[in-house]
Specification:
The complex is a heterodimer of chains A (264) and B (236). Chain A is an alpha+beta fold. Helices cover 38% and strands 10% of the residues of chain A. Chain A is built from eight helices and five strands; from the N terminus they run E-E-H-H-H-H-H-E-E-E-H-H-H. The N and C termini of chain A lie far apart (41 Å). With 236 residues, chain B is α+β, with helices and mostly antiparallel strands. Classes of the chains: A alpha+beta (264), B alpha+beta (236). Chain B: This is Superoxide dismutase. Chain B: Its EC number is 1.15.1.1.
Chain lengths: 264, 236
Amino acid sequence: MGSCCYSPSPSSSHLLATDFFSWGFKSSKLPFLQKRRFDRSQRASKICGYYGLRTPPYKLDALEPYMSLKTLEMHWGGHHRNYVEGLNKQLEKNDILYGFTMDELVKVTYNNGNPLPEFNNAAQVWNHDFFWESMQPGGGDMPKLGVLQQIEKDFGSFTNFREKFVEAALTLFGSGWVWLVLKKEERRLAVIKTSNGICPLVWDDIPIISLDMWEHAYYLDYKNDKGKYVNVFMNHLVSWNAAMARMARAEAFVNLGEPKIPIA
Amino acid sequence: MAIRPLLSRTLGLTQTLTHSHSHSHTLTQLRGLQTFSLPDLSYDYGALEPAISGEIMQLHHQKHHQAYITNYNKALEQLEDALAKGDSSSVVKLQSAIKFNGGGHINHSVFWKNLTPVSEGGGEPPHGSLGWAIDTNFGSMEALVQKISAEGAALQGSGWVWLGLDKVSKKLVVDTTANQDPLVTKGANLVPLLGIDVWEHAYYLQYKNVRPDYLKNIWKVINWKYASHVYEKECP
């Protein structure tokens, strides 16, 4: 895997342990690192990797009243956890998919449009990690500085972008996600929607913000009122700080404009 | 005549349920274009408890199905306009909205008829020709139930799981469709006998993410009489 892979966050590799390194990894004290599971019963000749469930960067009740504790517990503790465990179970039987970071795994299992059975679980694990980090307590409001500038450049105004984002969310058929992505080829921001577990990484685009439009994401809190959920997300949950960090990293991969050459 | 329970009266509803088995779609003529409206259920919202909660039935019927109908009517109106103007690109652009919302209306209309309270025979296995056909095609009723439940649980995202009849080959099939695609999208000769909604809105409030439990319990309120009726019509 020597290709240039965009890594949305510094420690996106959930890869916990392989039989190769028989270290006794103690759980780190950092708040966002999860319990490491280490399978000691593997025979020395078998190589396997396991991925872990990352906790969101805030307590599960921190997004109240906009996203309830009940939803977080169900969504993260139930759905997200199932995807991780499902993925690990699939990888147990698979010798080829070894040693990838999560985003690499997503791209590889997408298999250029002919997804392998592991794709759904891998993509959904990645999508949900990205989603939790796209939100923060006290979120919403407006982006600032570079992100705002880029949005205004590519959408005309923040209001226009917001309208497009909400419209995309409300016109999605079935289960899926809405994204603000930075398109690598076109070198501009765009709002896109994807079905089920598809994520823009597979097209080599760089996601900046995402919103889960699967019914399980909002049904407990808002029942069928998608409009309210989306507006609450934009007004109170979306983390423009996370977007700023991701944009900054993305600019290392995408040339967004004229360089500011200092005059000597 | 089933009268709405107290709960719905406090919500301001005055709908009285009738046991009329006449046309499922109430059509009204409006400028030559037929518009669709929400069909009534032949049972109370709470009548399917504990298999499906009254809360879910009410939301599912009054909010979700109604939304499909509203958007379907809107799309049809826009289609009529586009056709009159000869605006081909609009005609084609509207197809996905028509498929989604129209499919939603078709599917849910069948779904309500596929369910019935235990007191009205819900869950009672089919006798007669459908029972025989199930044994011939799948081995046994249990095998069929297993197959449908397994396919429903394995469906990724939103969709439906169906027991259908190929009206040409007269064979029974189990199949799934994504989103609101009706069964005909999987085969032009397929007639739906039984459809189970596995969109999360169909079970989430009650079963949360445990879709297999929902699929296990829904069999208690499945209306095999309706399925038999459709089957016998196609295979006299």
